[in-house]
Every structure is written in C-alpha cells, then in structure tokens.
Amino acid sequence: MAPRFREGDYAGGLQAAVQQIGARIAGEALPLPGAPTRTAGADEAGFSEMAVFLFFIVMLLSPVLRAIFGQRLGGVAMGAGAGALAFWFTASVLLASSAGLVALLYAWIFGGRRVPIVWGGGGGGFGGGGGVLAAGWLQLGRRRRLWWRWRFGQLVRTQKMTAQTSSPSSIPPRGLWARLARLLRHRWADGSLGRALPADMLQRLAARVAASEQRHTGQIRICIEGGLPLSYVWRAASVRERAITQFGKLRVWDTEHNNGVLVYLLLAERRIEIVADRALARAVPPEVWRAMTAHMGEAFRAGRWEDGLTQALSEVTALLAAHFPAPPHGQDGPGNELPDAPVLARGWADRGS
Questions:
Q1: CA 226, 230, 232, 235 torsion-angle sign
Q2: Pick from 312, 319, 321: nearest CA to 342
C-alpha cells in the first residue's frame, strides 16, 4: 500500500490496507465470549467503592471485636477480616496486606472510641436543623455520661480503698478452655434463671424490701443475674466488677442520702456481692461486710436462694436502721426512691457493659 500513497492514490492505499487486514482476520478463529474487559477507570472506581465499604465495616466492627476479645486480639481479628475482604475484592496480596494493616492499627488506636455522627447540617440529611439537634443530643449524652462517671467513680474509689469485698475474692480463669467452660456455665445459668426464682418468690422478696425501707432512710435493690455477659467472661472480669456496674445502671448511687445498697447475686457462680454507697460505706468498717458475707454464703452454695437473699436483706436492714434510722412519726422522709421489686438480668441479653 505504500507505493500508492507515494503516487498520491490515498483511497487506493486505504482500500488495499482494508483488504489485507480482512484477509488476515478471515484466516483466524474468533475469540471466545468472556467477561467484558474493564478499563483502568473502572478498576479505579471499583477499588474506591471497596475502600469505602471496608472503612465502614472496620469503623462499625472494631468496637464490637475489642469489647469481646480485648484490644490486642480484637485488633488482630479486625485486621485479618479486613485483609480477607480486600483480597476477595481485588485478588491482590499487596492491597489485602495494606488493608489488613490499616484495619489493625485503626482497631488498636481508635476502635474503643465512639465515632461522632452528625446528620444533616443546613438543609441536608434529616432536613433543616436536624443535624444541629442530633449533634446537640449526642453532646448532651456525652456530658451526662462524663458526669455519671465522675459521680460513680467516687464509689469505686471508696470501694477499693476500704476493700469491702462482699465475698471471698477469687481469680477468674484466664486460659482459653477455662474461659469457654465458664462461658457455657454462665449461659446455662441464664436459661435456668426463671426456674430458680419463680414469681411468688420475687413477690415475697419485694415485700421484704418494702418493709425494710420503713425502718430507715436507705434504699435497697436486689439484682439477680444468671450469668455474666460475654465480654466479662472473655476478659476474665470478676463478679465484684459486674456488681459495681449494675449498681450504676440501676441508679442505686442516685439517692438523697447517698446510702443506697445493692444486693447482687450471680447464679452461675453462686456468689453474692453487696455494694454500698458512700455514706454507708464510711459508717461501716470493712470487717463487718466480710463477716456478714462469710456466713451468708452457705445458703447460696446450697442453692437456697430465697433463704440467702432474705438473710442478706435482714443484715443490711439492721445496718441501715442503726446508722440511718427512719424519721420520727409525723415527719416525712425521702420516700421510696427506687423500685422494691428484684431485678432479673440475663448476661446474654446485655450488649453493653
């Protein structure tokens, strides 16, 4: 075709080129149908979508995995999961390793923090001032939590300084198989909670709490839990730690005279914990609490739940009546600040702490 171009016959040269290409194509087999070829732009768009998806997965799952397995193991699990997803999307070992490493570092550094969420903002999202209201609500909740931690922290410090352990201290198992055995035992106790504590027993306990509070200004709550939540079992938390957590969740600390008392019973380990607020904790020496729970544990070890709780309630009532007696007849006291009915809790249903 080159001679025709040199002669100025461009149309003839192009026609000769087309004929030669057609002849060559006619002698070759057509390619088999397959997946459409992706362009570089499509590959970049797919990688961007994958990165955004992985980011939200890591942001949502990091706190969950850290709460279950702890900071180190939870971060490793998050990194391995993110790396596996990235490899499934891209089939690239380099990208998968990078995604896993970033997810691991994020889970270790930021996985335990709450990510601020703001909707709207101006006219978007939920519309108008919705973003401002949502942000304000989150900020108010954060301040409320900080105030509660400061208020509740005084109780924790008091309990640690006076060493008021309600029952003999025991070290929870930390081995893997020991934790799994403990977890099964606690889940089994969750299922037997209703059979161990029927409704008529709970009504009798509530009546005894109401009668007790006529003799003093304190507030008594009974909390009975079948087993500890998964996060407590996995990090080998103590029963005392769970009792203090329930003390705060049930707001036993928020009484007028700061003399609330929580009687906490864990069926899975047949242990009782008594958590007293600051005013009563300062008035009662630690030896009294230890002596009280030492002879009280026999009923719980034998599975006589009502007898043990009644005995605990009687002895706590005697202490409150001695240090915080009810006002004379005709004078109004603080009233019934907390419910009298016992609280039944199941560890598997607790997602929080």
A1: positive
A2: 312
The whole-angstrom separation of Cα 66 and Cα 73 is 7
Q: Give Cβ neighbours of residue 9 (< 8 Å, ≥ 6 apart).
A: none
Backbone angles phi, psi at 169, to 5 degrees: -70, 145
Query: What DSSP state is assigned to residue 123?
Result: T
Amino acid at residue number 146: L
Please report where in the chains the tokens 């080129």 appear, as a residue: 17
E strand segments, the chain: 219-225, 260-266, 271-276, 343-345
Rounded to an integer, what distance in angstroms lies between the CA atom of residue 197 and that of residue 208? 15
C-alpha distance from residue 53 to each of 48, 50, 86, 117, 309 (Å): 9, 5, 10, 17, 52
pLDDT digits (tens, 9 = 90+) for 239-283: 999 999 999 999 999 899 999 999 999 999 988 999 999 999 999
- Phi and psi at 325, nearest 5°, equal -65, 160
Alpha-carbon distances of 238 from 106, 139, 168, 174, rounded to whole Å = 29, 32, 11, 11
Evaluate if residue 47 carries a pLDDT over 80.
Answer: no
Q: Give the pLDDT band (50/70/90) at residue 176.
A: confident
Q: Which residues pair with 265 in a beta bridge?
A: 224, 272
Q: Is the pTM of this model over 0.85?
A: no
Q: What type of residue is 150? A: W
How are beta strands 271-276 and 260-266 bridged, if at all?
antiparallel
- The residue type found at 1 is M
Q: Is 66 exposed, middle or buried (0-12, 13-18, 19+ CB in 10 A)?
A: buried
Q: Quick check: helix, strand or coil at residue 112?
A: coil
Tell which residue, 154, 78, 157, 140, has the closest CA to residue 112: 78
pLDDT in tens, 291-341: 888 777 788 888 889 999 999 999 999 999 999 998 887 566 667 899 999
Tokens of 100: 């896993």
Task: Answer for the pair 337, 228: CB distance below 8 angstroms, yes or no.
Answer: no
Tell me the sheet residues that pair with 224.
Answer: 265, 344
Structure token digits, residue 342: 């016992």
Q: 3-state class of 254 per DSSP?
A: coil
The answer on pLDDT for 94 being more than 80 is yes
